[in-house]
Amino acid sequence: MASSSNRSVHLDCSVETIDPRDDSMMAVDTNEEDWHRMHDIVFTNGQVLEYIGLGLTILDVGFAQARHPLNTTFHYFEIQIIDPGENCYIAIGLTQKDYPKNRHPGWDKGSIAYHADDGKIFIGSGVGEDFGPRCHKGDILGCGISFRNDPAYMNDFSDIASEDSVNWSDDSPSSSDNESNDVMNGEPKSRPVEVFFTRNGSIIGVRRVEMPSSGFYPSIGMLSTNEKVRVDLRPLTG
């Protein structure tokens, strides 16, 4: 998919454009109990995730994953870059439940992420694609899901959604037999969704992927000293 960075579409139902220079404008509805897994990242000041790793090699990734996956009620979350640190190796995205704790979101299967340092999107691969602008201190980045079967969300994104899709075969039913087994076992099936990213209230772009059966969990990655982000897991609840 070609870069979508030259298109700016405002979220009709949700995200208000926020002046990135005004930290007080980002109302935060997040606490430590909202986070299930953290590695080389700590929760400070009731709002901020701070990287505490060495930041020397790619093995020093800091990772934070929310306790609950996105759903049709809470389908979007945001971070604000409080301190880009040495290199702004900050990633915002979605990962499957058992995603490796020392890997940046987007690098491994079952994940998708936007990386602030180079503006690239990573979809289950260590090789990124041009997607949006580089990001800096004060920028507010968002990530959300437009659930394909929900017309209320699909109408907002259908005009810019990519026809490309990514399918992680281990998480996707390959036949009617697999679908039947999922139903009999009472386990949720994977489903196609549109994942979108925003910067300062405007949509950067959208990618269609297969959501793992475990769901997509809000995730943050960091990899250079002094990086800090403020997180709001429920920015649309007022």
From TrEMBL:
Residue ranges with Low complexity bias: 164-182
InterPro entries in the cross-refs: B30.2/SPRY, B30.2/SPRY_sf, ConA-like_dom_sf, SPRY_dom, SPRYD3_SPRY, Ubq-SigPath_Reg
SMART domains membership: SPRY
Name of one Pfam family that matches: SPRY
Annotated region (Disordered), positions in chain: 164-191
Record domain B30.2/SPRY: where: 1-238
Protein name per the record: SPRY domain-containing protein 3
Source organism (scientific name): Lygus hesperus
Lineage: Eukaryota, Metazoa, Ecdysozoa, Arthropoda, Hexapoda
